Amino acid sequence: MQVLLPSRPAAGYFTLENRASTPLTLVGASAPDCQTLTLHQSVTEGGTARMTAVASLPVPAYGSVSFAPGGYHLMCMQPSGALLTHRGTENVTLRFQGGGSVTAPFAIQGIGH
Ligand SMILES: [Cu+2]
Q: What pLDDT, in 10s, does the model give residues 73-98?
């Protein structure tokens, strides 16, 4: 999770790998120190960068999806707790269509890291 400024939204970057023979659809995310954690995509149109919310994101069988600056990211609104100390990890839960979920620790980084 990347914290830009306290009280500002934080962004989460990761690579989601699907090692199964069936496709997955990511439908949501949550973390204890985010009031909401939503799927976002950065897009550049006519030289202007903006973000849009993504309702769901398919992950192909044996494929992966990258969440990276300039593309998909998790947007943490109203970060609190560990996200404000710029240290440690935040347990992020990813939810998939069909009811499955996975929780993984995300390293917390302040700006400039
Ligand atoms: Cu965003």
A: 999 999 999 888 888 999 999 999 99
Ligand 1 center to 69 CA (angstroms)? 10
Rounded to two decimals, the pTM is 0.87
Task: Tell me if 16 sits within 8 A of 59, measured CB to CB.
Answer: yes
Residue 83 DSSP SS3: helix
Q: Do residues 68 and 28 make contact, with C-beta atoms less than 8 angstroms apart? A: no
Tokens describing residue 72? 């998909």
Residue 10 in any domain: the answer is yes
Average pLDDT of the chain to the nearest whole number: 90
Domain that holds residue 54: 2-97
Q: Tell me, in angstroms, the distance from the centre of ligand 1 to residue 100's CA.
A: 24
Residue 103 within a domain? no
